[in-house]
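I am still learning, so can you show me any protein sequence you like together with the matching structure tokens, please?
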Amino acid sequence: MGILISLDLAATIDPLDGILIDIARRIQVPKTKHEEAADHFMGLCAHVDRKGSPLEGKVLESYPSGSFSIAAAIYSRVRTMQHDVDVVVEVDFPTGTDPEWMLDKLFDAVKGDPGSRYYNFKVERNSRCVTLTYPDGVTVDLMPVARIPDGPERSGVIFHHNAKRAEKYRKEVNPKAFTLHFNARIKSSDVFASRYRTRRLLADGLLQKRAETQPMPDHVPIEEKSPRLVAIQLLKRFRDVQFRRRDGRCPPSVVIAAMALDAGQMSDSLCDELIAIATHMQREIESAERELRKLVVVNPAHPADIFTDRWPEDRSAQKLWRDDLMRLVQHLRTLRTPEWDPQRLKNILRELFGETPADRAFEDHYRGQGTLSSHNLLGITKSGAVKSALAAPALSTGLIIPARANTDMGGFIEDPVD
């Protein structure tokens, strides 16, 4: 059994972009996990609105928000294949409802009585949401939102209560408007798609009335996405790696997504996109620093919704992230030099994106380079380093490469769990 692929296009792909797309494929929630998340989402929404629930008849609508709503979901923990799902639960309560009471009611609705579906699951009542953790570590955050009467379409308030800090307030939001705004402006690229379909083949060759529940968006293969969207996923992974041993909040995903919309004209180069977003964020923070203030990012579809209300906590927090972004850009530009030292490449990828996805992408890259080299399509320097620009002539014929069983995320079935 084999896969017929044309190597002429594979040989012209920028190697750094190829490695970045391989890392992005490793960190993206694959189709099977996406479908599982959809099942979790639908089940929980029906449970909260079930007969006898403290919120029976009070749920107007539930829908996914956050990364799943814009196709930017990644594994929060790659090695254990865990991810997070955000859900908005629109409730039929006044916007002036006491936040503590509202969050307690949602907690009771999720937890249920002894013997109910989720009673023995880990359920936590947080300051703005209720989090349910499945046995495999996957979490679902349910956030209650009360619609604003006669307000902008889909606008509402969320409820904040933190007893330890003696905080209690309501905040105006519009997550649905941001999702629609973002998705309308992030377009796929035919060039990007055709380029990385080939890259993937090369690597692989190697009963009662309920409140309305909006379905989870369909899973989108990595190469069918906008290069900017994939760059957002990589930047989120970079953030997670930098903050995994730090105290304090990290830059919210919605802030990264919102700022990415203003990072200039989109390129078909994944590396260029990552540099553009990181550089734009860095400059915006530097602008705030010059004015001795904290960065402010608002929902472009609903400016009253302030995305940076909890991060940065202070100017030190935003300067820390600025320095991270500067280091990311510097490393990416270093990797664009004419020659690569393989060990340095591997070390930088690990620093930026973590050991597991970096090591797998590194191995896939050199396995693919071996295939190209055997057909005289790969430039090699006298020192044995791999040239970062492939100028070899195109191969007009195809090649049959024996196929190995592969998973949804581009890994191999015989590999250990990532």
